[in-house]
Amino acid sequence: MKWITRERPKIDRLACPWLIRRFIDANAEILYVPENQVLDKAREFNAIPFDIPGVEYSHYQDRCTFDYFLEKHQLQQDAALQTLALIVRGADTDDHTLAAQSAGLWAISHGMAFNITNDQELLEKAMVVYDGLYTWAKHLQKQKHTTHPTEQLFLQAYHRFLEEQKDVPQKVPTWALHLKEMIQDQIDTNLTLNLKEISEALAVHPAYVSRAFSKYFDNLSFGEYIRKLRIEKALALLHTSGCSLVEVAYLTGFSDQSHFTRVFKQQMGQSPSAYLKTLRKK
């Protein structure tokens, strides 16, 4: 079976071939061609096009092509693939709040693509990366690189608090109050929270947290709320720290300065550099 997509892959166009070869067709041939040639070459080589607009295997709603492969080939029952799908989607859509590993996958993929100009060679290297990610997702998610006794004490105290508060009536649920504390605690550490991790810590299903989140957090989704806090932290740094824009982007958890600039402009109506110039004139 032959599959064809745009040249110079970064995320989806490496993750999907890995998924094809590991779970759909071990002998699949992956073709990379210029974007304007994909459909013509697909007909010429009798290949299935993917990750381009207007074909079956592509992005839909807020999901990426990797998600579609999982659904189309009924692979959703594999929990490790579902974890991997969140990481891939976060990296591919530039929403690194979906999974803590998304920013790392984007950085590694971007760096590999810069260093390796041959797409087939790049794919072979990426196969090793995704094999490692899948193994981690399947067997190693609970393992930590270091042990933090204070974190364990905090969790123990928190769970005792939950037990004590079970019968106390309140308008805002305990999980929402504690989640605000957790997010606040993360503001100075690049806001690495994601729904999967906080749901485990709160003992609340991630689908419910996602659905009910806006009710208790300024009518914002989880991602919107995190981005709002990031920009608030960025404003504080711009006013007080003397950091460069690159440093501010890093300190507020953005994958790169362009992502930081885009989100800042959406929320503030002007770019960080324009805001900084105005600030210096005052």
What's a concise summary of this model?
By secondary structure, the chain is mainly alpha-helical. The protein contains 14 helices and 3 strands.
Verbal overview:
The protein is mainly alpha-helical and 282 residues long. The protein has three domains: 2-140, no CATH class; 149-217; 224-281, Homeodomain-like (Arc Repressor Mutant, subunit A), CATH 1.10.10.60. It has 14 helices and three strands. The chain has helices at 12-24, 38-45, 65-72, 79-92, 102-115, 119-140, 149-165, 174-186, 195-202, 206-216, 222-240, 245-251, 257-268, 272-281; strands at 2-6, 29-33, 48-49. Strands 2-1-3 form a three-stranded parallel β-sheet, with helices on one face. Strand 1 (2-6), helix 1 and strand 2 form a beta-alpha-beta unit. Helix 1 (12-24) crosses helix 6 (119-140). The radius of gyration is 21 Å and the shape is globular. The mean pLDDT is 83. Pfam families: ChrB_C, HTH_18. Residues 177-278 form the HTH araC/xylS-type domain. Keywords: DNA-binding, Transcription, Transcription regulation.
Can you lay out the helices and strands and say which pair or pack?
Elements lengths: L1 E5 L5 H13 L4 E5 L4 H8 L2 E2 L15 H8 L6 H14 L9 H14 L3 H22 L8 H17 L8 H13 L8 H8 L3 H11 L5 H19 L4 H7 L5 H12 L3 H10 L1
Helix pairs in contact: 1-6, 4-5, 4-6, 12-13
Pfam family, one: HTH_18
Protein name: Helix-turn-helix domain-containing protein
Keywords: DNA-binding, Transcription, Transcription regulation
